[in-house]
Amino acid sequence: MAYDIQRVRSAFPSLAETDSGQARIYFDNPGGTQICQRSIDRMNEYLIRANTNTHGPFRTSMMTDALIHETHAALADFVGAEDPGEIVFGQNMTTITLHLSRSLAHTLKEGDEIVVTRMDHDANISPWLLVARDRGCTVRWIDFDPQTYRHDEASVDAAITDKTRIVAVGYASNAIGTVNDVASIAKKAHAVGALVFVDAVQFAPHFVTDVKAVGCDMLACSPYKFYGPHQGMAWARRDLLESLSPYKVRPADDTLPSRFETGTQSHEGMAATLGAIEHFEWMGQEMGAGGITRRERIVSGFDVMVDYERDLCKHLLDGLLAIPGITVHGLTRDEDLADRVPTVGVVKKGVHPDTLAQRLADANIFTWPGHYYAIEVIERLGLTESGGMLRIGLGQYNTREEVDALLNVLDA
Ligand SMILES: Cc1ncc(COP(=O)(O)O)c(C=O)c1O
Question: CA 259 → CA 90, 232, 336, distances in Å?
């Protein structure tokens, strides 16, 4: 049993797309991955066989209710939770975070403190800055060390005080790729009675998410970053979700998870998200150890993929470091590769990141230049004026040949 890259690639129909005969190379994955066939099939099936609204006495509505429940249960398994009622769907992670933060704001008072980090995507910063503004709270920042690309421990300890009520921290950076020790931050936050909100958007596509091991209170991610549809989701402890006052309309169901899922949701999106989770199960069953439970199958799907992504990331990093004028901003040593996702930010001396991305685009290689909303990271690295970084993000379907094609363009 081993990772079979050609089988994995065959599960993504868009990988066969060409432009004027030229293959596409997708390294834009941190901004959104390609969708797997199971997701597309699930979405089509829903739209053809069960498309309607919820809670009706007729066939399609009962099928819709069943699908919604099944997808919540599958996502609970995906993040290591047990209760489907603890999973909240929404348009995307940003919208859900703004939504939940608005309810959390009402638990805060003037003088309370909120902790955010300089390594986060703005979707896990601005919602909390807005809460602080609305409630008169003080904001404290966790900094990272631009030499080590990890959180500065002293700054973690200084930021969390006995006035801290919420700590918002990213699991993996969408710019420099560092995976953070969120479990240790959660422990420190809980020691002062604060709640912990984890942004797992960039972690979830690459490693097994386990909310119990992290010990957080809330965690959000986005299925379109793990081979599913454009959708977002959050997990939160049931007692916390039940204790909050949701922004909802009066006739809407007040039980979980519905009380936080405002209006009509994307049912076809939920179907497709279920398909993305089934894709990981398929990888586990076909190429890995498999499992009896859905959680076991999901975990085995990740297990069989992790080494492949790490080797590919090493190949990319080795190639980048060998190109004169390239600086990688992130962890590069072999012994640190377990502490990063394969999302690599680089600059090339004398060349604007936009130009690099354009040259790559000319070769049909897709990457992102700029800040990708990680504005604090780019500022901390002193790269704001010079246009940020080029971001190369690997996914489960990328190959060494694709990486070599990128390296050739960057070298030239
Ligand atoms: C780390 C991180 N957090 C949050 C987001 C926002 O996610 P969404 O587009 O689902 O709102 C992104 C999007 O790129 C991200 O990379």
Answer: 12, 16, 42
